[in-house]
Design goal:
single chain; 235 residues; three-stranded antiparallel sheet; rod-shaped
Length: 235
């Protein structure tokens, strides 16, 4: 037998093990009707002579009626059962969120590799209104060859062939042309967009695109031009 104290009114009560076990450790104070867990307020002194008893309909009893808190015990079990599913559910949601972010981050490459995934990726893009474009991969597009010549009419001609070395389509890059003098100093620099070059917005897998165009240069500057440099990039 133990002595417990009501935390509300400090009244001491005698409690038997069989009663606390039946109510999962919960008791009701016979004086103020406060409900508490008996074992949290056990007295160090085990003398039960001065301890009061719980009352039930005028009869003196020790402990608590079996089954008094059976409803509370059932509710606690249900809460514990629900808590058991909480963290696994959170973990699954976090994993799905990380997967969703990974898909959005690599959406251009995924659709380029597997065009059949476009509708699925577009659906995943709806919450963020993201767009699917051709992947921009600077290291995947090379200038295979180029020919630079002076136009008899006073301008210059440039022919360039871009090569996509990837096994999926990539975005067509922009072109920067720099005309230099005998000391390799810049005389003229121009940037040409995909629209300026009249090219498609992408280069198919393992295919190339050829571009040829002419441009005029001021007569004073034209006399200084001795060479050129071509650079492809994504804006």
């Amino acid at each position: 037998m133990h002595i417990t104290h009501c935390p509300n009114c400090q009244t001491a009560f005698k409690v038997r093990e069989e009663h606390t076990s039946a109510a999962n450790g919960w008791v009701r104070c016979g004086k103020c009707q406060n409900v508490f867990e008996a074992h949290l307020y056990f007295a160090l002194n085990t003398d039960t002579n001065n301890a009061a008893s719980f009352t039930d309909e005028g009869k003196s009893i020790e402990g608590v009626r079996p089954g008094l808190f059976s409803g509370n015990a059932t509710m606690q079990k249900q809460l514990h059962l629900g808590a058991g599913w909480f963290w696994p559910s959170i973990s699954v949601l976090l994993a799905l969120a990380i997967l969703w972010q990974a898909v959005l981050w690599n959406r251009h490459w995924l659709v380029a590799e597997e065009p059949a995934l476009r509708s699925t990726v577009e659906a995943l893009c709806l919450p963020t209104a993201c767009k699917i474009e051709w992947p921009q991969e600077p290291n995947s597009v090379l200038i295979e060859n180029s020919i630079f010549s002076e136009n008899p009419e006073g301008g210059f001609n440039l022919q360039i062939r871009f090569k996509n070395i990837q096994h999926h389509p990539v975005a067509t890059p922009w072109l920067e042309v720099t005309l230099t003098d005998m000391q390799d100093q810049v005389v003229v620099r121009r940037v040409f967009s995909v629209e300026d070059l009249d090219l498609q917005d992408h280069i198919a897998a393992l295919r190339d695109q050829r571009v040829q165009f002419s441009f005029a240069v001021n007569a004073t500057l034209r006399e200084r031009i001795a060479g050129y440099r071509a650079l492809i990039f994504y804006p």
